[in-house]
Each structure stands twice: as C-alpha cells, then as structure tokens.
Amino acid sequence: MMLRAMLFSLLVLLWGAGVGATDYHKTKVAVLDFQQQGSFSNQDVGKIVAEWFTTSLVEAGRFEVIERRLMQQILQEQKMGSSGLLDPNSASRIGKLLGVKTVVTGTVQSYERTYELNVRLINVETGAIITADRVRAGSTTSLNDLVAKISARIIRHFPLEGYVVKRDGDAIMVDLGRQAGVRPGFAFTVYLEGAPVRHPKTGEILSIERVPKGLLKITEVRDKTAQAVIVQETCAGCIQAGQQVSSSQPEEALRPEEAARLREEERKREEAERKAREERDKEVREYQEKVEEEAREREKDRLEALEKERKHAAERTAQAAISGLAPLAAFPVQREELRSLALAPNGTLAATGDDDGLIVLWDLAKGVQLATLPGHLKGAVVALAFSADGRQLVSAGKDKRAVLWDIARRQQLAAVGLKEVASDIEMAASGRLVVIGSKGDESWLWDLKANRLRTLKNQNDVLAVAISQDGRMLATAGQDKQIALWDPATGRQLKSLSGHGGDVRMLAFLAGGSYLVSAAEDKLVLIWNPRNGTQQQILRGHADEVVHLAVSRDGQRVLSGDEKLVILWDAQNGQELRRYRVEKRIDLLGMTPDGRLLVLGSGKELTSYRLDTN
Question: Which runs of consecutive H residues, i.e. helices, occur in 329-378?
Fold first, then answer.
C-alpha cells in the first residue's frame, strides 16, 4: 500500500509539472541607457531613448522588461554603470546580474544635422550579438519614430510560437492568448516541420524545413487561447489541429482585400524570382559555354604557338635575364593582363589571376599550364592565396566575391559576397580562417567552417593583410600609414604600429609570428616585433615605392621589390644580400617558401628564376 501511494503521488506531481510546462513565459529583457555621441540640446537623450524602447517593448506584450529604477539600484549596488556602448561580454555580465536573457544597448549620434540610432541585441547566455540595426533621421523629433521602427524589427526576432488546438470550419483556436501578449489583429503563419536540412559535407543538421499551410488573423483573445479566422490556405482543409503557428506579418488587422493583395504580391514575387533564376541559369550557361570555347581557342593557340615559342626561347631568355640570373622557365604569354599571383608552399605550383576573371594553375619548374578555373564571372581576379597544405586556394575578384577552391578536384567549395572590392587575401595555417582586405575602411574575417563573415573596422582603405602561422595575430594596413594588429578570435584591435610615412602596400609574418615585415610607398621595408610594437630593423635600399614583398618559410630571407628593382635581405641582421635590376616593369612578385625560386610578372608575361641565396 505504501508503494502504491508513493507511485500515485509521483504520477500526480508529473502530471502537474506537465500542465505547468505549457504556460507561456515572456522573454525577460533589460534596456540600458544609450550612449550619446555628438552634441545635443538635451543631455538626457540617451536615457529618453532607452525609456522609449522600454515602453515600446512592454506594449508589444511578449516581453518582461525589467523596471528602470530597480535596474539602476542593482547596478549601483554592484558599482556598475548602465550607460555607454558596451561590448557583448560586458553587456552579458550586466544581463546575468539583472537576471535577464536579452540586453538592448546602443548609441544615439548627432553629426552634420543627422541623427543616427544604433541598436544591438545581446544574448546574455552566450554573449553573442543576436542582431544589430541602424536608422537615421534629420531631427531629434524623429527619434521616437526611429525607436518604433527598430522596435518592430526587434520583435521579429522573438516570434510567438504555438499550436493549432482546434478547427471548426474556418474558425481556428490556437494555444496562445492574452498571457502571451496576443491581441486581435495579430497574424500567424501555420506550418509543419519537414525534413531536416543537412550540411552536404559534414552531415550536420543546419535547420528544419518549414512547410507553410496558411495564414491566420486573430479575432478574439482569452487568457490562454485565441480564436482566429483563415485568411489564406495553401489547399482546402490544409490547416489542422496539431500544426504549429508563428507570428510573421506586421501585427495589424488583415482585411480580405489586404490578404488578396498579399497573395498577389507573393505570386508576383515568386514569378520574379523564377525569371531571375532563369536569367541567372542562362547567364551561367552562356558564361560556361564562353569559357569552354575560349579554353578550346587557347588550346588551339597554344599548339599553334608552341613552335614559335621554342624558336624565340633564346631571345626571350636574353631579354628576361636580370643581373646575371637566367630564367628557369618563361611561361606562355597570356591573352589578358595578369593581376594576381600566389605560390604554393611546396614550391612547385603557382596560380595567376587575370583581367578576365580566370585563374590559371602552373607547373613552376616547367612553365606548363596545368588547369584553368573560371574564378569570377565579372572583372579581374585581384588577390590569391594558397592554404598551408597547398590543397586549397582562395581568390577575390572585382565582382565583390571571395571563393574557396579544391586544387586537386578543380572545384569551388564555398563563396561569399563582399561589400567592396578586395585588395588582399590570406588564409590561416589552420585552414579555417581567411582574412580579406578591401578598398574601403573595412576588412573581413571569413570563417570557412560556418561560411560567415566578421567585419573589422579600419580608418582608411586596407591595402594589405597578413595572419601569423599560429593564427593568433592578424595585421591590416593601408592608406592611413598605420599597421593595426588584431586578435582574430575576438575581432578586438590589440595595438597600432606607426613608422611608415607612406601608404603601407604589403605585410608578411616571419616564421612563428614573432616578427612582422611591412613594405610601403615611403621606400622603406620595416621589421617589427608585434608583441611590443617596436621596430627591429629598417631596410633601406629602394629609390622607389616598395610595392612587392615575400618571405622565406624559415624566416631568414626577405624579398622586396619596386617597379624595376628586387632586393634580397637577411631578416636577422637587416643586411642586403643581393639586388637584381629588371628591364621590364614588375607587376607581380613571388618567392617560393624555400627561398629558391623567384617569380616575376609583367603585363601578360610570367617568368621564374633560380635565386642565388648563398
């Protein structure tokens, strides 16, 4: 009897816990004072904006917003401020102290008769930024409208989720009511969860497919349930009890004519997307056909020109010789100007990018073309870099795209769109991170595993990037004549190095990342200790702007170049070892990691030389 009583009590407790678990819990939010930047007639604008946000989120009905006075009291007791633009970690600590799941923080700025509102939502548990938004207005009187606009966007990140519990004709009941913040006029999408969406390579489940069934409009609200009518249904009788619902449309009443308009807009949007897909497919097919035809023409031209190339080999060898160095291989002249060059770590493979968006893979020793990759649909390939194991290649083009390639299979593995045209690209030794500089004030960190970009904000155009072999330090530099050092893991700037009097054009870390080399338009090559920011060596020898740079794998040799001069340096003592004068203008320069081969590009020509490094 005692055992039966205990089991009965346990069942009652479990049933009671299950009933309670269905109750709706509102998201708990804290709104911190906004930081003011610029001049305002009212010095409490940041507090006022925070109050407006608080009111707007409370009125939405689905948030529990911590009361301002209580928040100030708790923070003062802990000797922490609630104002200012906080980094995610600080905002996360404050959020955990206040017992909330989400923190709203940001700035309100005034400049050139323009007012800008910047808002960030931070997940307290992870410290990650959920979303960031920015809006502008021409006067302070418009700030309240901006708050309302961003609040509406914030609410979309917290949709109400529930279930259809009953259907009677066109009348629908859902398990969300007044306690969940539902009001008459709210719109909900009805859907079923479909098949999981898996990553094609790793098999990881990325998301669950949603199969839409229709659209509801709330007409009557009770404490825990609400009545709705069907506005749109994908098929007769598609909406059934047990299906899931999610708030989706702006929370206004949807009249029948509005529903019809939405359906027509959706039809037009789908038709436009279909036509756009057809146009894109057509463009890709035409481009592929063009590439194949050009490849055939190139092969024909190559075969026809082979004998001619052999006849003129001696003449070209004499013309290409520099300071007594005879060419190892003179590659076939290309149809388009060469714009980028990268040498593989094993020293046997090179990649060039041209004005037509093509990437060519070469055998360095023989000067033989191995393969052609249709890298970028429009414009030149402006930057190339190999992975540390030589199995992958990254490219960036004037089409504002960066692409990851599998060398062995000659296939594209991933691609990402950029806001600006890239200026430089580098892959970390781990093969998981790519850094990209741009002809703008931003540079990016491309996480290859997640295929996601993170932005680093710079002061001016970024002309050069580099990442240390251990992946713990990143360097960017450009038109502001400064070298910025970053922590790739956090995106935080560590320090800034000053010493150049002209635009910094090239960067490279020496072995191990203990030293950083920079080349600039002030005709100098500098070797830095990035840990303490000091200059270790100043390499003087160029009479023109230094625009090319390469380093050996062992960190013993540095190769620098201007338009007509190449200098080989001893990185340990800063002594000049060799200098090579070139007749043609140097557009591209590379050195194999073992320091044995020098590769120069000029216009449409590429030539390799064996370096005397003794």
Answer: none
- The predicted-structure confidence for 443-455, as pLDDT tens digits, reads as follows 999 999 989 999 9
> What pLDDT, on the 0 to 100 scale, is given for residue 283?
82
Coil vs helix vs strand at 521: coil
Shared-domain flag, residues 179 and 34: no
499-530 pLDDT per residue, tens: 999 999 999 999 877 899 999 999 999 999 99
In a domain, 308, yes or no: no
Q: pLDDT tens for residues 53-84?
A: 888 787 776 677 887 777 777 666 665 555 54
Integer CA distances (angstroms), 24 to 142, 355, 468, in order:
35, 59, 50
Distance CA 154, CA 547 (A): 47
**249 and 120 inside one domain:** no
Measured from the Cβ of residue 476, the count of other Cβ atoms closer than 10 Å reads 29
Domain boundary at 125, 156, 187, which? 156
Residue 567: which CATH number? 2.130.10.10
Same domain, 135 and 170: no
The length of the chain in residues reads 614
**Rounded CA gap, 275 and 183, in Å?**
39
> Which among 364, 361, 449 has a CA at the least distance from the CA of 408?
361
Note whether 438 and 401 are within 8 A (CB): no
Distance between CA atoms of 251 and 241, rounded to whole angstroms? Answer: 23
Q: Do 482 and 521 fall into the same domain?
A: yes
b/e sequence 384-414, b meaning 16+ C-beta within 10 Å = bbbbeebebbbbbbbbbbbbbbebeeeeeeb
Contact 387, 393 (CB under 8 A): yes
**Residue 316 has which token pair?**
């070209």
pLDDT at position 314 is: 46
* Distance from C-alpha of 168 to C-alpha of 286, rounded to nearest angstrom: 54
Stated pTM of the model = 0.50
Residue 21 has pLDDT above 50, yes or no: no
- Amino acid in the structure at residue 270: E
Same domain, 339 and 228: no
Task: Enumerate the β-bridge partners of residue 604.
Answer: none
Single-letter amino acid, residue 369: Q
- The residue segments making up the domain with residue 240 are 161-265
- Exposure b/e, 362-382, CB count within 10 A at least 16 = b: bebeebebeebbbbbeebbbb
CATH number of the CATH domain containing 199? 2.40.10.410
CA distance 582 to 595: 19
Q: Are 66 and 121 contained in the same domain?
A: yes
Q: Which of 107, 86, 139 is nearest to 36 (CA)?
A: 107
Q: Dihedral angle at the C-alpha atoms of 404, 408, 410, 416, nearest 10 degrees?
A: -10
315 assigned to some structural domain: no
Domain count, the chain: 3
Assess if residue 14 is contained within a domain: no
CB 224, CB 179: distance < 8 Å: yes
Comparing 413 with 137, the larger pLDDT belongs to 413
Please report where in the chains the tokens 């069942």 appear, as a residue: 11
Residue with tokens 């619902």: 245
H-helix or E-strand spanning residue 550: strand 548-551
